[in-house]
Amino acid sequence: MLLALHSFIPLVGNPFIDRLNEGGPLFMYTTLFLLIVILALLIRGFVKPTARDKTVTLVSSISLFVLVWGFLGQMLGFISAFDAVQAAGDVSPAMLAGGIKVAILSPLFGMIVFLIARIGIIILNILKK
User: Fold this and answer.
1) DSSP alpha helix (H) spans, the chain
2) How many Cβ atoms from other residues are within 10 Å of residue 41's Cβ?
3) Distances 41 to 62, 80, 109, 114, 128 between C-alpha atoms, Å
């Protein structure tokens, strides 16, 4: 039992995991899952040249979805943050800045995944010759 518990200790206090949870688990973990899918598809495109056209199309579609998904998370985060500000009335600038920081995490992660996918697509297109 201690061995199993010990294997999860590095996840506690991990800045990456903390940011995933802080940015809204639904949007952040979905984006992380789609990043893994995109990486798997890109690897398939590198290994299997006959599937490159289909892979480029699929990765392109998923990358656009991830980008929009991140901004959807931001908009929903802003709505809930502004609801909290409205309910509280007087909010400190530090609390407002913290809320804005959290709202920016989801689209930032979506943009990073989008860029990774687009770089992979560019490389696949170069190799397509």
Assistant:
1) 2-8, 15-22, 25-47, 52-88, 93-127
2) 20
3) 10, 35, 19, 14, 15
Residues 113 and 66 sit within 8 Å (Cβ to Cβ): yes
Q: Answer whether residue 2 shows pLDDT above 50.
A: no
**Nearest 5°: CA angle at 44, between 39 and 48?**
155
**Which two tokens mark 112?**
């990073």
Instruction: Say whether 129 sits in a helix, a strand or coil.
Output: coil
CB 85, CB 96: distance < 8 Å: yes
- Predicted model pTM: 0.82
Q: Can you say whether residue 82 is alpha, beta or left, with left for phi > 0 and alpha for psi between -120 and 50 degrees? A: alpha
Amino acid at 3: L
Q: Look up residue 53 and give its two tokens.
A: 């056209």
So what's the pLDDT on residue 10? 54
Place of tokens 């990765």: 59
Q: Rounded to whole angstroms, what are the CA distances from 115 to 8, 27, 39, 126?
A: 30, 17, 12, 16
Q: Between residues 67 and 1, which one has the greater pLDDT?
A: 67
